[in-house]
Amino acid sequence: MNADDRLVLPGARDARDPARSLTAPGVSYTREQVAAIQRERMMDAVVQLSDESGFENTGIKAICARAGVGLATFYEHFPNKDDLLLAAFDVGVRKIIRAVAQAYTAAADQGWETAFDACMVALLRATADNPAFSRFYLVEIHKSGRDSHARVHAALESSYELFANAEMSAGMPTPDPQMVPLVVGGIYTRLAQYVRTGRAAEVMELRESIVEFSLSVFGEHRRRTAEA
């Protein structure tokens, strides 16, 4: 895979990358562009610092120092660090879900099994290529408050819907309402185990077992439905 094709998630870039400098000579930005760059840099900073020290040990002053912004700027965008965490989570997870959906669409004409495998490759590559964000959305997110749990639940619900719709669009029976959450939840838990133990770079080795297990579950449901 070409490095330029990698999914870039919060935490992947240096928060003080010169390409995002707001004081570069000869470069001017609108107020909206300045705000967007500041938010991106703070998201990168909170993901990186959470990966290094844990979200609970990451303070707002440290986030500002890493992002190159002042405290006043931080509070112009976020009332607290938990809101910054949720914003970074939302941005990164939306990108992952979009990449997985696009992978399915690109391979859909090759059959549901091939398209499902393409989805898993997209998910596993995003995880391996973005170890800081992977730890952030799989581990650190749970160290925040109740809103973070709701965000995780909403993200998983989006994944359930994606896979359920993919099955039906491929002519498969309407999936058991408990089946897709069990499969997606199992994948989520296994990825979290790898990331929590510092093995994000190795998640591609899960590809075969995840695909084989998932297809066997959905295939068995299809067989039973056909026999009913």
UniProtKB/TrEMBL annotation:
Annotation: DNA-binding region: 59-78
Example of a GO MF term: transcription cis-regulatory region binding
Ranges of residues in domain HTH tetR-type: 36-96
SUPFAM superfamilies: Homeodomain-like
The entry's keywords: DNA-binding, Transcription, Transcription regulation
InterPro entries according to UniProt: Homeodomain-like_sf (IPR009057), HTH-type_TetR-like_transc_reg (IPR050109), HTH_TetR (IPR001647)
Pfam families: TetR_N
Protein name: TetR/AcrR family transcriptional regulator
Naturally occurring in which organism (per UniProt): Nocardioides marmoriginsengisoli
Organism classification: Bacteria, Bacillati, Actinomycetota, Actinomycetes, Propionibacteriales
